[in-house]
Design a protein that fits this description.
By secondary structure, this protein is an alpha+beta fold. It contains two helices and eight strands; from the N terminus they run H-H-E-E-E-E-E-E-E-E. The longest helix has 17 residues. About 3% of the residues have low confidence. This is Bacterial alpha-L-rhamnosidase-domain-containing protein.
Amino acid sequence: MQRKQAGPARFLLDNLWGAMITNESTNSGASWEYVGQDSQPGYGQYTSLSHPWGGGATYALTQYVAGIRPVEFGYREWIVEPAYAGFGLEWVDATVPTPYGELGVSWRLKGEDAVVVEIDAPAGTRGVLKISRDWLCAGVDSRCDDCAGGKEDYVRKVKGGKKVQFRVEL
């Protein structure tokens, strides 16, 4: 998703991880280690039903769809660059524990013309909010003909210690 590939990422989320819970005959409550081309579990002699990769969707959603990523170890410095287009979502709310306290981010689409982002970062941290126009231009939005009208990315520095809100016109 670092290359703004919402389409393939959404396909995997909908079909790969979704398959683990929607098929009642193979739902074990655990993640599958192997998945066949037909989205069925790849049971075999060495198959584990508690392999940790199955939780990958969790961190991928936090880091890319919510957009919370560390720039410096421990989130003393961070970036929030949400994937606000391409996943069919209207809002996201996520929190990441850090050594300094919880780093919370929420975003909500306001019609087709704006996204509102709220960041609640702990004191002693700092970061950047980046609303990348590339999310609109990744082949998933009808406004991509001229890459969001040639607008530049929205970038703002944020200091932790207080909740801040930004409204960004798309």
